[in-house]
Amino acid sequence: MRAPQEYEIAALDFSGTEYTVEQTGTDKNFRPEYEARDVTGETLFHCTHQMYESNDRFPFVDDDGTELFTVEASGKWDIAGDYLLTDSQTGEELVILDNDFSLFQDTWRIRDAEDESLLAEISSRGALYTVARKLLPVGQWIGHKFEVTDAEGNSVGTIESGFAVFDKYEITISDRSSVPLAPIVAGTVVIDGIQGN
Q1: What is the pTM of this model?
Q2: Which homologous superfamily is 4-196 in?
Q3: What's the rounded Cα separation, in Å, for the pair 134 and 110?
Q4: Model pLDDT for residues 63-80, shown as the tens digit of each residue
Q5: Which of 18, 90, 120, 172 has the most CB within a 10 Å radius?
Q6: What contacts 24+ positions apart, CB below 8 Å, involve 31-40?
Q7: Would strands 118-124 and 43-48 be described as parallel, antiparallel, or unpaired?
Q8: What is the DSSP letter of 186?
């Protein structure tokens, strides 16, 4: 198995342990827009969820609009399926994000793009919160809480948001040596984009 650091994006530095992912609004076509920052407040990337294209697509760009990497669904309207993360600078397919759609708990897996070995999991908190977010009239405003585990099932971090119209996630990783950081931060955007829309 490859080391977690081998799944990072060539043009980005994910050497920290704390990141913020925020939905900053929508574009003129009402597609959600996101931004990710490190602990110093420096912007790492921007992303607009291309949700009206043939396949769901997430192009991640820098401040100048240069594409850094993409995440694209394997099929149209792929709520529970595979999303491939590709480094735009090297052309390398790095990881697959896959989801077992469930009303009671959301579990996303990060897998190696070649051999599909498990690298990490992102799982939502209990069924009550998950059902409330999906069924209550203001459920989409209830804060998220996800646990991040490594390939062995050990808890290595959390992804949390508070009660808000636009989600803002605080990502904290306690052991960055056992999980790939860039796919976790990008995965937060994908999870919010797919499940929120």
Answers
A1: 0.87
A2: Tubby Protein; Chain A (3.20.90.10)
A3: 23
A4: 999 999 999 998 655 455
A5: 120
A6: 32/192, 32/193, 32/196, 32/197, 34/189, 34/192, 34/193, 36/185, 36/188, 36/189
A7: unpaired
A8: H
